[in-house]
Write a structure and sequence with these properties.
alpha+beta; 9-stranded antiparallel β-sheet; 275 residues; 5-stranded antiparallel β-sheet
């Protein structure tokens, strides 16, 4: 059995939206600063005022203004300044990239059975800014269900199924978790499409219910199909390699390896990895 242990506390260096997203807990005192932030999606660097966080180079952040919703990376921090605050847009959130715990190899993903290692509220900050407090989100269910072992029960077209399978093989299911509850297990996943989409579902005794996606399709979509295939793969890996670990908690979370390296490892200049 191969495990991957990680527990970084080193400083970060320069490297490189959601209804459930939450602002990470601030663990240090805010330090006012003027910061330059690089936005890869726009290949541009802009300057912002920060009065809510203790920012460092390499931090992944979200801002208000025209680039609201885009993730940026802090490339310069200046704590010696005098500005007119109204002339600057602000940093509104920071992605929580501190990960500590035991991770297991699971194909294209790293897998944990401890709820504190890769919790949904932490991982979603890697992909989306906090929701606007004024936004209202609602959902509904028609009571339909299908078996995970028979995805034909999703009743999707061949074209959507093929595209969903492509998403799965391209490792676009960046994160998936399954947590026990009183009425079965609640599942959550993040799928990278034209933007990060959130997929939710219920799982009980091999049956899937309440499957929804934030792309707001009126039918089962490619993102949901990709998540179902990824879920089957994770279950197969658990059954063949980590059955005892899963039985202890009834919980798992899996994150794409490239995502974990990009957010947690590449931004560290000190620390160690044990394989």
């Amino acid at each position: 059995m191969m495990a991957f242990k990680i527990g970084f506390t080193a400083e970060k260096v320069d490297n490189y939206a959601s209804e459930t997203a939450k602002v990470p807990q601030i663990t240090s005192q805010p330090k006012k600063s003027v910061v330059r932030i690089y936005f890869a999606d726009r290949n541009t660097t802009l300057t912002y005022y920060n009065d809510r966080f203790d920012l460092h180079m390499g931090d992944k952040v979200y801002v208000d203004g025209k680039l609201e919703g885009l993730r940026g990376i802090v490339v310069d921090v200046n704590c010696n300044f005098k500005i007119k605050a109204s002339d600057y847009k602000r940093v509104i959130a920071v992605a929580d990239t501190e990960v500590k715990g035991r991770l297991f190899m699971a194909g294209s993903h790293f897998l944990t059975f401890e709820p504190s290692v890769l919790p949904q509220d932490k991982i979603i900050t890697w992909f989306k800014p906090p929701a606007n407090p004024d936004d209202e989100f609602v959902s509904g269910s028609d009571g339909s269900s299908f078996l995970l072992d028979d995805l034909s029960g999703m009743k999707i077209s061949k074209e959507i199924a093929e595209r969903g399978y492509d998403y799965y093989t391209e490792n676009r299911v960046r994160y998936i978790s399954l947590a026990p509850g009183t009425d079965g297990c609640s599942g959550f996943a993040i799928v990278e499409g034209t933007e990060p989409y959130e997929v939710g579902f219920k799982y009980s005794n091999g049956e899937i219910t309440d499957l929804v996606c934030s792309c707001f399709c009126s039918y089962n979509c490619k993102h949901e199909y990709a998540v179902m295939i990824q879920l089957r793969e994770i279950f197969d890996i658990i059954e063949n390699n980590y059955a005892q670990e899963y039985e202890k908690s009834g919980y798992f979370a899996a994150v794409d390896k490239s995502v974990l390296f990009s957010y947690v490892i590449a931004a560290k200049e000190k620390g160690s990895i044990v394989l």
